[in-house]
Amino acid sequence: MKQLETDVVVIAAGLSGLAAAVSAAENGARVICLEKASNTGGAANMGMGPCAAGSPVQKMSGITLTPGELFRRHMFYTHYQVDAKLVKAYYDKSGDTIQWLMDMGVQFNSVRPAFRAGERTKAYADGEYTWHVVQPEDGSEPGPRAATTMTKRMTERAQDLGVEFLLETPGTGLITNEEGAVCGARAKDKSGEEIEISCKAVIVATGGFGHNVQMIHDLIGLDWGKNLFSFAIPGMDGDGFNMCHEVGGGHTPVTMEMMYQLPDNMNHFYVEGAFRQPCYWCNRLGERFMPEDEVFNTTFVGNAINHLPGKVGFAVFDANMLKRWKRQGPDIVSHVHPHDLYEGFEAQWNADLETYKDDEGNPYIAQADTLEELAEKLGINVEGFVAAVEEYNAMCADGFDALFEKDRQFMIPLEEGPFYGCKQFMGAYGTLGGVLVNHKLEVMTDEYETIPGLYCVGTDACTIYGDSYNFCIPGNTMGFCLNSGRIAGENAAMLAFGGGEDGDWDDDWDDGADDDWD
Amino acid sequence: MKLMIDGRTIEAEEGQSILRACLSAGIFLPHLCGHPDLEPLGGCGLCMVEVEGEAEPVRACMTEAQEGMKISINGERADKVRRMAMELILATHPADCTGCPKYGVCELQSMYQYMGVSPQRWRCKGRTVPTDDSNPIITHMFTRCIRCGRCVRACEGLRGVGAIGFARGEDGAMRVTIKGNSLQEAGCRFCGACVEVCPTGSIVDALGMMRDDRSREDNVVPCRSGCPAHIDIPRYLRYVKAGEWEKATAVVREKVPFPETLGSICTHNCQGECKRNHLQEPLSICRLKRAAAVRDTGEWKERVRHEPLSGKRVAVVGAGPGGLTAALFLAEKGHRVTVFEANAKVGGQMRYGIPAYRLPDAVVDKEVATILEISQGSDPEPRIELVCNERVKDVAALLGQGFDAVLVTVGTFKGNVLPMPGHDLKNVYVNTEFLKAARVGNPQPVEGGRVVVLGGGNVAYDCARTAVRLGAASVDVACLEAEAAMTSTPEERDEAAEEGVVLHDAYAFTSINDDGAGKVGSITIHKIARFYFDEDHRAVTELVEGGELTLPADYVIFGVGQKPEDTMGFDLELTHGPYVVTNDELATSVEGIFAAGDVVTGTKSVIAAIAQGREAASSIDRFLGGDGDISAELLDYEEPQKELGKAAEDFYSKAVLPQFTPGDERKRGFEPFECPFTEDEARCEAARCLQCDLRLGITKPLLWNEY
Question: Which chain A residues are Cβ-neighbours of B214 within 8 angstroms?
Answer without folding.
Answer: 192
